[in-house]
Amino acid sequence: MQEKYPLVISLPGGPRSEVMTLNHPKLPGCTFFIHWSVEVSREGVVMPKIDLLTKIPERALQLFPSQAVGGAAEAFQSLLRILGPEAALESIIRAVSLSQET
After folding, report:
1. Domain contains 1
2. Predicted structure pTM score
3. 3-class state of residue 87 by DSSP
4. Which of 42, 51, 55, 63 is the most buried (most CB within 10 A)?
């Protein structure tokens, strides 16, 4: 996905990074972090875990108080359950990039 959205996606730890950072070039300071990990139970059950974290400057929150930025993490979890990991990630990346691509 980094090749498809190079201006939006960065992997701070390189290709093996556990965190993907999403930034819109025209909205400095507004950052979304996607953190993923994989847990394996003693029984061998693999459980991927993907979380969305937001970093929005206080000034932006004051300018847009009615926006549901605070509920972004919960909305992302709903997308994961409905669309699956790849489509949910693609959706949030397109939203951050303000892309109209399908």
Report:
1. no
2. 0.73
3. helix
4. 51
